[in-house]
Amino acid sequence: MKTRITELFGIQHPIIQGGMHFVGFASLAAAVSNAGGLGVITGLTQRSPKDLANEIAKCRDLTDKPFGVNLTFLPTVSSPDYPGYIKAIIEGGVRIVETAGRSPEAYMPALKEHGVKVIHKCTSVRHALKAEKIGCDAVSVDGFECGGHPGEDDIPNMILLPRAAEELKIPFVASGGMADARSLVASLALGAEGMNMGTRFIATQEAPVHENVKKAIVAASELDTRLVMRSLRNTERVLNNTAVEKILQKEAALGKDLKFEDIIEEVAGVYPRIMLEGDMDAGAWSCGMVAGLIHDIPTCKELIDRIMSEAEQLISKRLVGLL
Ligand SMILES: Cc1cc2nc3c(=O)[nH]c(=O)nc-3n(C[C@H](O)[C@H](O)[C@H](O)COP(=O)(O)O)c2cc1C
Which residues sit with their C-beta closer than 6 Å to ligand 1? Predict the structure, then answer.
């Protein structure tokens, strides 16, 4: 399948693995890229630019296909060493960066000067238009369904994607709630040039996370996610567990007076305990409603091959057959 996204990134299939904290290590990124999609290393999971450089080198040993690095611009006062991470990306010969969070505007000149293609993840049409204006090559349009941070507008992809198609000139992929061939074909119909998946890629053989995490996703239904941190305007969709119940109780009790410090125990630094040790109640961790559509733990190649062959069937048999 050829789309503006496969052409832009030089990949075989229009499927991207979004950056995921403590999931997007070299092993997963390489597995996705080797399967013909675009694998993405999560930059900030690496403690320093030097660690990111090592992870990039590891990924290069595992694949000769294109892969990207995610750089999430956090809304924090003490910011990570972004210039250092960007230097590691450029010196590591990475040609694709997935940015997310705040606008990547300040770093666009450095990235563009070195021929890096930038795909910015946004949860609204206005942010997507801003990304287009500052020179991003593509956007990943992340609907309300998504695992992680859906923004504060709460617009699901059935509306958000066609709205993006109405406004954007640069290509975009559909993100949030994507799991299978139906997701891909629907995304294409709504105007996207491919899809980005997060939660679905955690439940794969190569995802370097504890088996408990994969099993929790397979066991979960579409009813099992919750939104936390809304009053902090840092809304996150997470899988429900005892820590999330605690956060929700505190949010209900404190309302607008809630401060980050009130929930710090349930949200700060919990990812290694969950993803690496499999302590499933250690804190809140991002997970999409799409868990309800995830019933197995295939290899990345099995997953991507299945999506592409079923998409072809869907288009050439079911859809054409309706005409
Ligand atoms: C466990 C987890 C961690 C994530 N961490 C990040 C991150 O660090 N940076 C980022 O830009 N997006 C992050 N995301 C969002 C994904 O890249 C992707 O946009 C999202 O998962 C898409 O929705 P889906 O889960 O329904 O596929 C994360 C998602 C999950 C599930």
Answer: 18-21, 23, 42, 70, 72, 100, 121, 142, 145-148, 175-178, 196-200, 285-288, 290
